[in-house]
Predict the structure.
Amino acid sequence: MGEAPAAVELRGISKSFPGVLANDEVSLVVRRGEVHCLLGENGAGKSTLMNVLAGVHRPDEGEIRVAGRRVTIGCPRDAIDLGIGMVHQHSSLIAVFTVLENLLLGRGEGLRLKTGEALAALEEFSALLGVAVDPWVQVGRLSLGEQQQLEIIRALWRGSRVLILDEPTSMLTPKGVEDLQRVLAQLTRQGLAVIFITHKLREAFDIGDRVSVLRRGRLAGTIDEATMRGGTFAELKQMVVELMFPGEAARLARVAEIRGFEGPARRSRRPAAGPPLLELSDVLIPGARGEVGIDEPLSLAVHAGEVVGVAGVDGNGQRPLAEGIAGQRRAAAGDIRLAGTTVRALSIGARQRLGLRYVTDDRLGEGVAPPLSVALNLVSKRIGAPPFWVHGRTKKAAIERHARALVEEYDIMTPTLDTPAGSLSGGTLQKIVVARELSFSPKVVVFNKPTHGLDVKTTAMVRDRIGRLVEGGEAGALVISTDLEELLELCDRVAVLSRGRLMGVVENVPGAEQEIGALMIGGGDE
Amino acid sequence: MSSLLTSEFLAALLSGAVIAGAPLLFAALGETVSEQGGVLNIGLEGMMLFGAYGGFVVAHWTGSSWIGFLAAIVAGLLVALLMVVFCVRMGRDQIVVGIAILLAVEGLTSLLHAAQFGTSYPRLGAVPTVRVPWLADVPVVGPSLFGQPAIVYIGIALVVVVWWVLSRTNPGLHLRAAGWKPAALDNAGVDVLRVRTVAVLVTGALAGLGGGYMAIVVAGVFVPFMTGGMGFIAIVIAMLGRGRPLWVAVGAFLFGIALSSATSLQLAGVNVPTDVVQMLPFVTVILALIIFARQSYLPSALATPYVRGRR
Amino acid sequence: MSEPETRVASPPPAASVKVLSGVWRGLGPIVYALVAGGVLLLLMGRDPIGFYATTIESGLLSQTGLEQSIIRMAPLLLMSAGLIVAFQAGLWNIGGDGQFLIAAAVVAGLGAPLVGVLPYSLALALLCVIGFVAGAAWTIVPSVLKAWYGVNEIITTLMVGFIGIRLANLLIKGPFLSDRSLVPQTDVIPFKYLLPYLPGTRIHLGIVVALAVLAAVHYMQTRTSYGLSLRMLGASPKAAAHAGLDVKRDIVTAFGLSGGLIGLAAAVEVLGVWGYVRADWNPAFGLTLFALVFLARLNVKLVIPLVGFFAVLSIGGHEAARRAGLPNDFLLLLIGLILFFMVFTEWARTKGWTAGMRLRAAGRTSQREAALDE
C-alpha cells in the first residue's frame, strides 16, 4: 500500500494569544483514508491548531494546503466550503432545536428550509453509519453519543472530506466509544481523513493509524504507520512519553494519563473505615429543565477515612447529586445527614459551617467570582466569619495573611494577592478552589470532576491532596469523576451512576473496572 | 353602569384598541426579531421616538402619510444603526447603549422640533381609512376593526410574515440560532454578526414605523417625548410573547384595550382619572409577570455580545 | 478546547500615568460630547461658545449659580449612591424616578401635618426616614420577582417606576391634595420648618447629608462583609450562591437600600428646596444619573465631581438654553452623547487605539478591566 495523497497539509502554523504562544510553527500532514491522532497534554495546542484549520482562529503565520492547493481559511464558512468539518468538544448543536433544524443550520442559500433534502440526507448517512436518529426530536433529548453521531452526519452532509473530532470520547460510555470506532472505520474506507484529538494514549493506539504528539505548542514528533503496526504497546508508550515529557517521564510515571494501559496504580484498601460522615438515604434530586436528575431513590454513605467515587458518563445526574449534597439544590425526598445531623433543610452556608465542602466542576462559573481578587476568593466561603470579619468589618491583614499562606502551601501561581481571579489559568483556579475548600478542617468534601481539564502536574497535586485529606481518618471524600482511571487510583469504593440511578457500589479490588463498565452500560440505552 | 355594554362603547373600545395597539404591534414584532437573535433592544423607545419625529416631519412637508411612513422607517433604521455599531459590532453593553440611545433621541428630537417649529405644533390631516368589503358591515365589530387606515392591515400581515420567516425559512432558523447558541451558528458557517445586524435593523425599521404611526395616524402631531413608554411596553409584550408573533399580536391588542379604555369609559359616562388609566397597562404587565414569572424564558444568549472563539 | 494561557507579564504602569489615564477615561467622553453638541448648536445657528460660556457663568461662577448647583447636587448625589449600591450588586435599578416621586409625594403629603406637631429636628429626621422607607418599599415588587422567580429586573423596575410616577400623581391629587391651592399640589411646609442653611450661605443641609451618605456607602462597599457579599453578587450570582451567601436576602436588601437612598434624595429635595410637591412634577434624574454613575464606573470618589459637573450643566444650561431659545432637553442629548463616547472609548481601548493603551498591558487585560468596571 503506497502512501495515500495528503488531504490536508499544515506548514509552519503559528498562533499566539496575548501572553501565550499556542502554536509554534507546527507542520502536519493528514492523508486520505487515515485516522490521525493528535496527542498532547491540556494546553499543548491541539485544539488551537484544529480551530485554525476549522476557521475559528486565524493563524499568525504559516500556510494551509487542502488537497494540494494553498488556501486561506478566514472563517468557519471557508473551512466548510473546503470540506473540513469539525466536531467540537463542546457540542455545537442547539438543544432546543430539532434534529432536522440542527442539520439545516447553515445549509442552503435560499429562503425556504430544505426539509426534504435534509430528511433524505439524514436517511442516507444514518444508513452509512449504521445508526438511527429521529429527525423530529429535540436534540436536547438525545444521548451524548447520539448527538455526536448527528454532528458527524451533519459534517458529512456538508461534504466534509476531512473530519476533525476534538476529544470525542470524553463523554461516551465504553459502548459509545466502540460505536464511534466502527463509524470511523466506515468513514476512512470511504477515503475520508479523520483527525482525532485525545489525551489518552490507549485510545490513540487503538483508533489511530498514525499519532502526532504536540508539546507546548510545538510538534514533538509523529509515529508513522509502520512503527504503529510493528511496535508493542510498551515500546509505543515509551516513545510517546519521551515526546510528551522529555526527561520527566520517570518522575511523572504515576500520573494516569501517562500510565495509560498499564492499569492503574491501585490504591491500597484501607483496613477499616471510621463512622459514617455523610449519609444519603433514599434521596431524590430533580434535574433542571432537560437535565437528568437523581430520579430514583439513592442511598450512599461516606465514612471517615474513606474516599468514595461516583463513576458515570457526564450528564447522568452527577451535578444534581453534587449540588443536592452541597445544598445548591433541594432534595425532593429522602434524608441527607452529616456526621449524624440531618442537613436536608439547611442552607448552603449552614452545611458549610457543619464541615461540608464542595469543589465544583464549574470553576470559572461558580467556583470563583472572576473580578474579585485571589485573596478574597480564598475566603469567599467565610464572608462575615472571624478572624477575617469582626462585627461585619473587614480585617484586611488577616485575610492577606491567610491567603498568602495558602498561596505558598498550594503553589498558587498568581502575580499578586490582588490579581483578579478571572485572569488566571484553569489550573490555578482549581488550586484556589481546592485550597479554599480544604482549609478549616472539613469533615466531608465533595469533589466534582476535580482534575478535569488540568495539566499533569496540577492533576497529580489535586489527587495527592484528596489522599491526604482522608489519611488521618478524620474526614471523608466523595469524588465524582468521568475518568475511571482516576477513580480507581483514588477510591476505596466506586458507585456507578447511570440515567439518574445508582447502579451499584463496587469495592475497588482488582477487576473492578470490568464490573464498573458493566454497570455503566447496564443503565444506559446507548 | 349598564351603559358599559352598549354597542357604542364596544365599538369605541375596539377601534381605540386597534389604534392604540398598532404601534405596539409594530414595535413588539420588531423587538421579537431582535430578542430571538440575542439582542435585547432597550433602545426601542428611542427608535420609536425618532420614527415618530421623522415620520411627522416628512408627512408634514410632503402632505403624504405614505412617504411619512417610509421616512419613519428610515429614521428607525438610522437609530438602529447606532445599536448595530455599538452592540453588535463592538460588542458593548446593550443596556448602556440602549439608554444612551433613548436619552440622545429624546434630546435631539426635542431640540430639532423646537428649532423648526418653535412652540407651535402643526397638525396633519386625518389619514384615510380603508373599509374591508363585507367584513366592515358586521355590526359593532365591523366598522371598528375593518375600517382602519391601510397601514393597520399591513401590521396584521406582518404578524404572519414574521411567523413564517421565523419558523419556515433559513434566515429565521439562523436568527433563532444566533439567539440560542451563536457559536453553533458560527461553526455552521453563518456570520453571526451579520444575522444580528439584520435583526437589529429590522427592529429599527418596525419600531420606527410604530412611532411614525403614533405621530401620523394617532396624534397627527409631533410632541417631544410623545412615545411615553410605549417602547418599553413593546419590549415587555415581546418578552411575554416568547418569540411567537401571534401571541405578540394578542398582547398588543390587549394593551391597546387598556390604553384606549379611558376615552371609551368617558364616552360611556364613567370618569376615571387619566393617571389610573395610564397606570393600567403597566399594572397589567406586572400582574402578568407575577402570574407567568415561572414560565417566561428568553433566548439563552440574549444580551450577550458574540466574539468568535471566546467561551 | 484548550484555554489559552492568560497571565500577562508586563510591568504595571507608573502611578502618575495611571492616574492621568484614569482622569482622561472620565473626561475624554465629556469633552467629545461637548464638542459634538457644540457642532450641533452651530448647525442650528446658535453660538456654541456663548452657550457653554453662559452655562459656566450662570452655573458655576455666579454666587447664586454656584449655590444653586451645590443645592442641586444634594439629591443627585444621594440618588447616585442609591444607584451605585444596586449596580454594584449587579441589579439594574432603572426605575429610580418612580421611587423618587413616590417618596417625594409621601414626604410632602405627610410633611405639612407632621412639622406642626413634632419638634423641628425630630420632624425632619422622621420625614427623611419616611422618604427612605417609601423609596425602599417601591422596590419590593421588582426585588421579590427577581430574587424568587429570576424575572429580569430591568423590565420590572421600569414598569414599577412608571406606575410610581402615576401613583405619586394620584396621591397628590387624592389624599394629599391641598385645598388652599388652585393647582393640584400638596400642602406647603412652612419655610421655617425646612432644612437649615449652612452658615453664611443659602445652601441647605442636604449636601452634607449626601456627602456623609456617600462616605458611608463607600465604607460599606470596601470595608464590610455585607459590601463584599453585594460585590460577589454583582461579580457572579452563581459564585455568590455557591459560596453560601443568602442571595435572596442580598437582592432584596440591596434593592431596598437603593430605593431607600433614592427616597432619601427625594426627601432632601422636598425638605430642602420645595416644601411641597405639585402634580406632574418629575425632575427625571433617573436615566441621566444612570449615565453618570456608569461614567464614574460605580466609583463613589469619581461620582462626586461628575455629579458636580452635571449640576452646573443643568443649572447653567437652563439659563443658556433660555437665552438661545432652545428647550432644556439639550442636556439629555449631551448625556446621551457622553454615554456613546464612553462606550466608544472603552471599545477603542480594547482595540489598542488610544495612546494610553500602549502604556498598558496587552488587549485582554484591559478588556478584562472593562468587564470588571461594568
User: Anything to note?
Assistant: The domain at 276-355+441-523 of chain A is CATH 3.40.50.300 (Rossmann fold). DSSP finds 19 helices and 22 strands in chain A. Chain A has two domains: 7-261, 276-355+441-523.
